[in-house]
Every structure is written in structure tokens, then in C-alpha cells.
From TrEMBL:
Ca(2+) 5 binds at A242, A285. This is Peptidase metallopeptidase domain-containing protein. Zn(2+) 1 binds at H50, D52, H65, H79. Signal peptide: none annotated. Residues 159-179 have a biased composition (Basic residues). Ca(2+) 2 binds at D40, D77. Ca(2+) 3 binds at D57, G58, D81, E84. Its cofactor is Zn(2+); Ca(2+).
């Protein structure tokens, strides 16, 4: 479960529990919280293009989206636009619990309702401290899962007319669904690392871990697995960065948590909280000359797990001050000891010459790294 900094963690968690309870009170469905990335419905906050096929658009319009149940990795997952003003118990901003209840309806299998008063109507209707499920919401959910005793409606209620509540807020659609299954040639990396034991390159993407062929040209199709099946007993999804140190220990950054693995098993005492703000929510990390570098937005810093108060003196520094030609907000980085460092962003990769401290070129990632089309030298 991810959190926004706009609200306290406990209040967000309580809101999500209340939102789920709206559905479990009427339908024959039991919802419980689990840890370790094994959940059917993963909750997180995202901004703009977060690589699930449904980019957010900043404040306004799309508030959140959820994916319908199914066998795809992302099925059931629910994302909230972190650019929105999320609030609780006030008419200001956008009420988190009401939107969450709507999105969880999608995650459980409901589409939008044609009833403009229903919770599952396609537009956010503003804050209502006493919001309820309408007949249409209850009927459709219990049609999927069956009803709790004495809760499933057997007949339509008497219709009464009420004066509509007027809102000046522009209606906003809150749900999208991916239209096509992504191709391996469109694969984006959450993070990359070279394993110190087998000298193979691995990539994290959402819940999965991929291994490159031994010649580093293309993904080894027989290996692709759910990451928690490889890194035990737990591993985060949507990793921020991954890097292997000179002792062959794998570090995985996720938000404000740090995971460390030895031979793919989580070390005792981990995950740990990252206390230095700059090292939270990092974009990428790499090891070069036995030093680990982390990248975030338009800056970078050297890093060690023993840093507890602040980055070392003089850091962070602008990426452009050393890694000339490398863009800001990189998505992944990798040093494979061939004299070059590789940076990835979108469909492109950047080859950086370590000796001459310059970017050699920017090229399409798919042919060189994913084995799509004609293989080309890196």
C-alpha cells in the first residue's frame, strides 16, 4: 500500500478500510490486508505517465483509476493521482475515501453506472459525509459475488425526487482500463542490476523480474518470473532503483524503504527506513569503481547504507555537472564494467563513456537490449 504525503498514513489506511467495507458489508466477499506484494489489489499514488497504459493528467479531470480483475499482473490494482488535492472530512479538495470506494468497485469488477446518483457513476460528485451505496451499486455487486444475509435487494426501492446538489467542479472520469497487453519490445525498466554471482543482467518491472540472455541481447523468455518467486521472502513492486555493491549484495530502493539481499534472500534487519529525504523515492542507482551513485530528478549523489543524516559534503550535485548528455529523471542505470555506463529513459538508452566522461549516443532501447528487430551493437 502506497501513501501520499498530503495525509497521515493512519488516516489513509482507515479510509481505504472504510471504502472496502462499503462493498463487503453488502456482498459476500471478504477483504483482508496482506503484506509483501502478494495482494490482489495493490494501492498506490502515481503522477503523469507511470507506465501502466493510463497516464494521469495533473490536477483536475482524472482523479484515479483501477484495473478490472483478471490474470494480468496489474489486474485489480488501484492508482490515485498524487497531483490531486486529497482531503478527508472537508468539502475542499477531493475526498479520498469516496473516490477509493468508487475505484475499489472497479477493482472488484464493476463498470460505471448510468445512474448519476450511484457511487459508480462516472463522475466525482463532491464530498458527502454520509455517502452510501445506491440500489444500482448493491444490485450489481451482489450479482457478481452474492449478497450478505438480509442485504441483497429483492425489489427496487420507491423512487423519490430530491433537489440536485449543485457543484461548480467540472465532472471528471475516474476509471481507465488498458486496451492491449504490452509487448516485450515496449518493456520499460523500473530498475536494472548485474548480479554479482552469475554476472547476468536483471530488470525489475512492476511485479516481475526479467533476466537478459548471456550475450545481453534480449530477454531470456524461459526465466521471466514474478519477482517474489526469485527474491525471498519479500520484494517490493515498482522498485525505484536497484544496485549491487562490491560485496555482491543487492540493494533495492522503494520509496522510503531499503531492501538488501544476499544471493536473492533478504538480509536480516531489512527492509530499513531511509531517513535522508534525498535518498527516498530515487530514480536509479549504479555502482562505479566500488562507489554507489543514486539519481533523483536532476541531481545525483554518492550513497552508502550507513549514511543517516545527510548526503556527504558537496552532494547532491546536478546530473549535468558530471554525467554530461544524460537527461534528468532517468528510469534506470547500469554499469557492466565494459568502460561504459548505460542510462535508460522511455524507449531510449544513453551510452556514457566513463573514461572520457561524455555521452557517446542516444539510441532506441528495443533493438540493442530487448532483441526486437535486427540486433545491433550496444
Amino acid at each position: 500500500m502506497g501513501y501520499t504525503r498530503q495525509l497521515g498514513g493512519a488516516s489513509q489506511r482507515r479510509s481505504f478500510i472504510n471504502a472496502f467495507k462499503k462493498w463487503s458489508d453488502v456482498a459476500n466477499i471478504n477483504i483482508r490486508e496482506v503484506g509483501g506484494g502478494d495482494a490482489d489489489i495493490l494501492i498506490d499514488y502515481k503522477r503523469r505517465d507511470h507506465y501502466d497504459g493510463s497516464p494521469f493528467d495533473g490536477r483536475g479531470r482524472t482523479l484515479a483509476h483501477a484495473f478490472f480483475p483478471g490474470s494480468h499482473d496489474i489486474s485489480g490494482d488501484t492508482h490515485f493521482d498524487d497531483d490531486e488535492q486529497w482531503t478527508l472530512g472537508t468539502k475542499e479538495g477531493t475526498n479520498l475515501e469516496i473516490v477509493a470506494a468508487h475505484e475499489f468497485g472497479h477493482a472488484l469488477g464493476l463498470g460505471h453506472s448510468s445512474n448519476s446518483k450511484a457511487l459508480m457513476a462516472p463522475y466525482y460528485q463532491g464530498y458527502d459525509p454520509d455517502y452510501k451505496l445506491l440500489y444500482d451499486d448493491i444490485y450489481r455487486m451482489t450479482s457478481l459475488y452474492g449478497g450478505r444475509a438480509a442485504t441483497r435487494p429483492t425489489s427496487r426501492p420507491r423512487v423519490t425526487t430530491r433537489r440536485p446538489r449543485v457543484t461548480t467542479r467540472r465532472p471528471r472520469a475516474t476509471t481507465k482500463r488498458p486496451s492491449t497487453k504490452p509487448s516485450i519490445c515496449d518493456l520499460k525498466f523500473d530498475s536494472l542490476f548485474m548480479n554479482g554471482d552469475d554476472r547476468r543482467i536483471y530488470a525489475f518491472r512492476y511485479r516481475k523480474i526479467y533476466r537478459f540472455e548471456s550475450d545481453q541481447n534480449g530477454i531470456e523468455k524461459s526465466f521471466t518470473k514474478v519477482s517474489r518467486k526469485v527474491l525471498t521472502p519479500r520484494v517490493p513492486i515498482n522498485t525505484g532503483a536497484a544496485v549491487v555493491d562490491r560485496y555482491r549484495r543487492l540493494y533495492v530502493f522503494k520509496g522510503s524503504k531499503l531492501f538488501r539481499y544476499t544471493r536473492f534472500r533478504l538480509d536480516a534487519g531489512f527492509p530499513k527506513r531511509i531517513t535522508i529525504p534525498f535518498f527516498q523515492n530515487v530514480d536509479a542507482a549504479l555502482e562505479y569503481n566500488n562507489v554507489i551513485y543514486v539519481f533523483k530528478d536532476d541531481k545525483f549523489s554518492i550513497w552508502h547504507e550507513n549514511y543517516s543524516r545527510s548526503p556527504p559534503s558537496g552532494y547532491p550535485k546536478p546530473i549535468s555537472s558530471y554525467w554530461k548528455g544524460i537527461p534528468n529523471n532517468v528510469e534506470a542505470a547500469l554499469n557492466i564494467n565494459d568502460g561504459y555506463t548505460y542510462f535508460f529513459k522511455g524507449s531510449k538508452y544513453f551510452k556514457y563513456n566513463n573514461r572520457y566522461q561524455r555521452t557517446e549516443y542516444r539510441k532506441d532501447k528495443a533493438p540493442a537490449w530487448l532483441g526486437c528487430g535486427r540486433a545491433v551493437p550496444k
